[in-house]
Amino acid sequence: MAAAVTTRLKVGTGICLVVERDAITLAKEVASLDFLSEGRFLFGIGGGWNPEEMENHGTDFKKRWRVLREKILAMKEIWTKDEAKFHGEFVNFDPIWSYPKPAQKPHPPILLGNNTPKPLERVVEFCDGRFPLAGRAGDLAAGIADLRQLAEKARRDPKSLLVSVDAASAEESVVRQYEKAGVERTSSPYPPPTETPSCRSLIGTRSWQGRSSRASSQQSASDVCNPRSKADR
User: What pLDDT band is residue 193 in, cutting at 50, 70 and 90?
Assistant: First the structure.
């Protein structure tokens, strides 16, 4: 496991199809990974696009977003309570015990990967950030402004909502543009198509809800670039 042989590297999913997994089992897996990585896990999730695949997993494609929301709410109960229970339309269980609890409190950041206007409302309601694909992210600056406005209306701290961009270019000039737009971090395939040592120099630190963790330039399946490095703050 990458977390076992590193100390600063972020470990994340990009993305996890929550609607195709059991909520209790997935909550246990996420908590265990965050615990073993000492709070370095980022939980990237999405609704999925393949109707046949979802049907094979018992999920109605037209109901996938309702299923996703409910499973996330149920997992939050498991992560934050010693004796959790949940009774909903799609998830239903009596009091259970599940350990370990996540190292990050109240739980790892939940980043929603979706490219339509609707996810902004979903992010504010039950997630902690947005994780769009670079090629489909649209006007990021405008999207971030809208996200913060929705957060204020919902009485959430706008600064607590992270915006990451997946499959992004690792070129320094591009990363700087993301930084200017308000993006927290980018991720790109490793190794990138061209050598970009400048990108690695941008990798820095980030604190989420008081817990500080650092990204690393060590080789991995994904090279995580945080445009807001410590030196830039």
Answer: low
